[in-house]
C-alpha cells in the first residue's frame, strides 16, 4: 500500500508532536505544511523534512498530492479549516476540541459522509491501549458495577495568551476540560439526565476552572474538575460496588491500578512501550482510510457529537452565569451610585437647612452688621 501524503494546516507546538509521531509509523508520508506565515512554514518544513511549504492554506489544499489534512489551528478556526479541507476532497484529522459547538460538528460530519471522506477527532486518549485496558477491567466485573467517576485535570497555563482570548475559543473547557468529559463518556456512556456546572469565570468571560457533575439515569454520578490556573494530581477514580480503579494522568493515562473493597491491589497496567501517543491515532487513520471508512472506530462520529452536546450545555451554563454575574455587578454598582447620590443630596439639604437656621437666628438677634 502506498503512503498517504499528509498536509498540515498550522505549524505550532502541537504540530511538532504530530510530525515526530509520523516518523515512528508506516503508511503516512510527510508532504506539505501550511501557515499564514510562509517563513514559519518553510522553517517547520525544513526542520521536520516536509517536501512542500505554503504560506496559504488554500494553496496547499489545491495541491492534488495532499490526501490527508491535519488541522492544528485554534479551536475557533477548526470549523472553517476542516470544512475547506473537506470541500477540497481531503481526508481530515482535526485536533481537539473538535469544534466550538455541536452545530459545527454536525455539519462537518454530514459533509464527510456526503463526500465519503474520513473525518477524525484527534482526541488521542481514545486511541491509546490504556483506554481499552480500562474497558477490559470494567467488563471483567472486577470492581462490580461502576457507580461513580471522579476525574481532575489542572495545569497552570496562565502564560498562554490564546487561552484568555474569547475570539480563539479560549478557556479551560476547550483546552483540558474536554479530556475529563471524554473519559466520562468513554467509561459511563451517554445516558445523562442532568448536568450541573459551577465555574470560575474572569471579567472577559473566560472559564478558569470548573466543577461539572453529570447525573446518569442509572443512579451513577461523574464529578469532573479542571483548571488552567491551578495544579492538580490529574487522577481519575472509577468507583464500583466491589472495588475501584485508579487512573494516573487523565489526559495521557500511564498507570492504572485496580483495588478491591479492602483496598488491596488486584491488578495493574503500566504503559511502557516508549510511544508518546499520537502514533495510535495515526495508525487508526491509516487503517480506516485503507478500508474506505469515513470514521475511526476508536472515536466514531456519534461519540464526537455526544462530546459536543456536553460542550454546548456547559458553555451555555457558563454564559448564563456570566450574564448573571454582570447583572448582579451592574445592580451592585447602581446601588452604590444611588447611595452616593443620596448621601450627597442629604448632605446638601442639611447644609442648606443649617444656613437657613443661622440666617434666621442672626436676623432676629438685634445685631447690627452695618
TrEMBL record:
Gene3D superfamilies on file: Dihydrodipicolinate Reductase, domain 2, NAD(P)-binding Rossmann-like Domain
InterPro entries xref list: Gfo/Idh/MocA-like_OxRdtase_N, Gfo/Idh/MocA_domain, GFO_IDH_MocA-like_dom, NAD(P)-bd_dom_sf
Keywords, comma-separated and alphabetical: Oxidoreductase
Keyword field contains Oxidoreductase: yes
Domain of life (superkingdom): Bacteria
Sample GO molecular function, one term: nucleotide binding
Domain Gfo/Idh/MocA-like oxidoreductase N-terminal: 4-118
Domain (GFO/IDH/MocA-like oxidoreductase) ranges: 133-245
Family: Belongs to the Gfo/Idh/MocA family.
Name of the protein this chain belongs to: Oxidoreductase domain protein
